[in-house]
Each structure stands twice: as structure tokens, then as C-alpha cells.
Amino acid sequence: MPTGPTYRAVIFDIGGAVDLEFAWEMALDGAIASACGMEGIRVDPAMVEEASEQAVAAFAPDVTLHMIETLCGGEPTTVARVARRVEAMTGQLDAFQLRPGIEDLLKRLKDKGLVLGAREPRWERLERAGVAALFVPNPGVPPTECILVGDRIDVDIAPAKEAGMATIQFRSGRWRRQRPRSAAETPDAVVTDVAELEAAILELLNG
After folding, report:
1. Which helix (H) or strand (E) holds 10?
2. Exposure letters 106-122 (e unless 16+ CB within 10 A, then b)
3. Do 31 and 167 contact (CB within 8 A), yes or no?
4. Minimal CB count within 10 Å: which of 58, 119, 138, 151?
5. pLDDT tens digits for 30-61?
6. Per-residue burial over 189-204, b = 16 or more CB atoms within 10 Å of its CB, e = otherwise
7. What are the b/e assignments for 2-25, b being 16+ CB within 10 Å?
């Protein structure tokens, strides 16, 4: 009787699944509003939220820049100045927040013998959060034996599917409304909390 794929690793895009990103998104949105104000452009939280939703809907590669362009009416010089101000305000910001319940799930997955990978260029953030030891920087597991967990369709789910991984979209924060535009971008499962994530991973593992 044929069996499904055997998965040996779960790869996490840290932002959105492991890192709640709530504080980061609030800080970034506040910086954008403040930087616009310094240029004489008055924006309120509703305008920033609308700019965020437009950027997500447009699958913008650089969401921050897209938001700034929207709020500044696309005027290049103003956009450039606001972008520099936002970078100055947020470039060194470290607002890592472990998602409630995610550390226990990571430990349970590791106890099952799964390799945990992390797509996180700033490894020290995982160390400060106390979870770095649960992850392997370079798992060395073939893509067809990996499950990818990420919050973005464009930069997480679609590339992972193309590489042959199983995929789980964790809808969270700014990206919660992003939807696939084709079958090539459609994840194997969609979750909105840690309990749903664990169930989705177990379902894939059990074939």
C-alpha cells in the first residue's frame, strides 16, 4: 500500500510563527507615521492600516517602502526622506516576542526526532529568546522531506512549494489577509494559532 512522504524537518520562517511580531509591527507603523509627520504629511492609524493592507494585497516585495509611497503620494524625494527616517528609527530595533505556546510546541516536535530549521538571519535574536538550541542553522535535509511554516505567501509559501516542501501558512499580523493567487501559491494547510499549527504538522507527518 503506497505511503505519503516522510518528513524529517520542520523549517520555520521565524517572523510571524515563532516571533509574534506584534511589537515590531506597532513600532514600524508608528515610525512611518512619525516620519511622514516630520515631512508635513499628517497620517492617522487608519491611514497607516490601509496602506499596510494595500501593500500586502499588492504582494509588494518591500512592504515598508510601499506603505511610505502610498502615504506620501509617490513623490520620490519625500518618499526617500521618509524611508531614511524610518530606517534610522527602526534599524536597530529588536522587538522579538515569542508567540505564546510556541516554545513548548518546538520542544514536542524536537522530542519526536524532527530537525527544526530556522530562516532567521539574526541568530542572536533566537539566542536572546532562549530557543536557539532547539534549532539547527543548516538542517541539511532534502526539501521533499521538509515542512515549511511561514506567514507570507510570496516569500515563504510559494518558494518552498517550488522547492518541493510541504507548506503551512500561519496567518498572523500584517500578512493575515494575504491569499494565494494560484495553485502554485496554495499552502497544504492554513493555521491561525499554535494548536492548529501542531495539528497541521501532525497530519502531514501521519500522511
Report:
1. strand 9-13
2. beebbeeebbbbbbbee
3. no
4. 138
5. 999 999 999 999 999 999 999 999 999 999 99
6. bbbeebeebbebbeeb
7. eeeeebbbbbbbbbbbbbbbeebb
